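Known limitations

Structure tokens in this collection are predictions and should be treated as such. Users comparing against experimental data should check residue numbering before alignment. To illustrate the layout, the record for Glycine cleavage system H protein is reproduced below. The input appears on top and the generated tokens appear beneath it.
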Amino acid sequence: MTDLAALSYTPEHEWISVEGDLARFGVTDFAADKLGDVVFVDLPAVGSSVVAGEVCGEIESTKSVGELYAPVTGEVVSINDAVVDDPSIVNAEPFEAGWLITVRISEPAPDLLDRDAYVELTGADA
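Generated tokens:
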């Protein structure tokens, strides 16, 4: 089980885990719940660049289409092919098997939210 307090969050409902110069991120349980049943995930190609705060992918559900924003700037070093093949993993395990992208960070991460600030933003339970 992921320690949700150890993650950082964006106001756009992405979580991020940083280890060294690598950042892995995905959408939060709050976002997955609001999206509804995820049916399609479009992620950037490995080797492409992403810029913090800019759209880097798309998540489509039975309710709507949501944009995925990069929480950091850098090069995509891996994507979660399992989620591309079975998007329902995003709903089932957003913090575990439902991760989306790993980026090699090239610039310092912008200010991110801690768990308490994210819970306050969403009004969700911790």
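For this record: Helices lie at 29-35, 81-85, 88-92, 115-122. The chain has a mean pLDDT of 93. Please report discrepancies through the issue tracker.
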